[in-house]
UniProtKB/TrEMBL annotation:
InterPro entries: UROD/MetE-like_sf, Uroporphyrinogen_deCOase. The lineage of its organism: Bacteria, Bacillati, Bacillota, Clostridia, Eubacteriales. GO terms for biological process: porphyrin-containing compound biosynthetic process. Residues 179-360 form the Uroporphyrinogen decarboxylase (URO-D) domain. This is Uroporphyrinogen decarboxylase (URO-D).
């Protein structure tokens, strides 16, 4: 693919392909989502992971090499776990291992006694109680805490800017398409991951079930806001990884997990964006629940029977995943290609399919590089549709969806009961010195930085 001379033609092909896919039409070919992220790209190029993570300017060479060597319709993922700001904050949830990989130990920043405060004001409880337990740099006096938080937010912003510049250059060089995007977490998973831990939340649903329900409901608007797409467009995806469901009884899943997740997915879809759910581990007994989600929701499966999933969900939703990454380590090239062919035969008919793996690659030892390249090349050559949609694929309702997006976010902002978050209208009321100033410029700027701090705080919790 890197030999295609007209990058603009390739970019237009990809844009049409993804627009068709995301709107439920048959694309010209199966979009390919590669398995490599930043860690595996660094290891593929035999560079030092820790060094690159501390100096992201060194990442461009590794990512560029991956784009040259491995067919894919999107650039390698770069993630958002940057050790610099975690170090400044004294992070417990994310620490760098001896080989440079960012790891997530099992931690709990919230006690069972915090539920009432959390339900009353999730954001205040996070700032006042939970973050100081998760980050030692915030467990201090108010002045030091403010300075630490400011430094951390600045270095995270600087690192993100470097990564953003690299991504933009790779997009331009290789014809990748820029899409609006975002990431958030399901409400029950959010409560379990850093706050109550696996064991804590499992105990809570037996001891204090109503408080768990109320806490999930209280955090849902904030997590909808967290998933707000970057950029004013309805062309893109918001990712949500699903963690805890497979470890729950169905009656608990139905009661605690599903209602707020469904509400969240529906709200983000109403804002004009496709939700991409990473269906981790074994969710097969919950397929009927997934059918309730809005059309064109993307479901990337780590585990399951693709024939059953295609039959139950393939006409309404976009499917991905299933390909076992471990096979690239242990099987022959022919066996790896045969597996890709098997999945294409099952999942590709009628469209609504994006080729992808069950998980992202973390290392490149053994035969994985050669097998990965062979599989991706096979899909690129053989994953074409004869009956693809050739008409106008722009979203005719984009303006209305963007208007609704603004309305939903404004409703959420006004509902956030917090001394640490202020909407522009409230800020304006308490600052009469702004009378006569260009409020149409000042308002969005003040709100922008209010939202930046909000997003930084919530990202520290997931």
């Amino acid at each position: 693919m890197e030999n295609m001379s007209d990058v603009k033609v390739l970019a237009k092909e990809r844009e049409d392909m993804y627009r068709n896919l995301l709107s439920g039409r048959i694309p010209s070919r199966i979009p390919i989502s590669g398995a490599m992220g930043l860690d595996s790209a660094i290891k593929y190029c035999q560079m030092d992971v820790a060094e690159v993570y501390w100096d992201f300017s060194k990442a461009e060479a590794a990512l560029d090499k991956v784009c040259q060597d491995f067919p894919s319709d999107s650039a390698p993922g770069v993630g958002r776990r940057y050790p610099s700001y975690y170090q400044i904050l004294g992070s417990k949830p994310f620490i760098m291992s001896s080989d440079g990989t960012m790891q997530h130990p099992n931690v709990a920043g919230m006690t069972a006694e915090d539920y009432d405060d959390f339900i009353a004001s999730p954001y205040d409880c996070i700032v006042d109680k939970i973050l100081p337990r998760l980050y030692t740099g915030l467990d201090t006096d108010s002045n030091t805490k403010a300075m630490t938080l400011s430094k951390a937010m600045k270095v995270q912003s600087d690192d993100a800017a470097v990564i953003g510049g690299i991504s933009a250059r790779l997009n331009a060089k290789y014809g990748f398409v820029s899409m609006a995007g975002g990431a958030t977490t399901g409400p029950y998973d959010f409560m379990a991951d850093f706050f109550r831990s696996f064991t804590g939340i499992s105990s809570d649903i037996r001891r204090i079930p109503q408080k768990v329900i109320e806490a999930c409901e209280a955090i849902t608007p904030i997590l909808i806001k967290k998933g707000k797409p970057l950029g004013p467009s309805t062309f893109g995806q918001v990712g949500i990884p699903l963690h805890m469901g497979p470890f729950m009884r169905e009656k608990d899943f139905e009661k605690f997990y599903w209602p707020t997740l469904k509400k969240q997915v529906e709200a983000i879809t109403e804002m004009g964006i496709n939700v991409n759910l990473f269906v981790e581990h074994d969710f097969m007994r919950f397929l009927d629940y997934f059918y309730e989600l809005p059309p064109h929701t993307i479901l990337r499966f780590e585990y399951g029977d693709p024939k059953i999933v295609k039959e139950k969900l393939g006409k309404k939703h976009i499917l991905s995943g299933f390909y076992p990454l471990v096979m690239l380590h242990s099987a022959t090239k022919e066996q790896c290609i045969d597996k890709a062919k098997e999945l294409i035969d099952i999942l590709a008919p009628g469209g609504n399919y994006m080729f992808g793996f069950d998980k992202g690659a973390m290392d490149m030892h053994g035969s994985i590089s050669e097998n990965l390249k062979a599989v991706l090349e096979y899909v690129y050559i053989n994953g074409r549709y004869d009956d693809y949609y050739k008409g106008d694929n722009k979203d005719p309702h984009e303006a209305l969806k963007l208007k609704r997006r603004s309305e939903i976010i404004n409703e959420i902002d006004k509902s956030i009961n917090s001394k640490y978050f202020t909407v522009w209208e409230k800020y304006r009321e308490s600052h009469p010195e702004l009378d006569g100033r260009p409020l149409n410029i000042i308002g969005p700027k003040i709100q922008k930085y209010e939202d930046m701090m909000f997003n930084f705080i919530i990202n520290l919790c997931s």
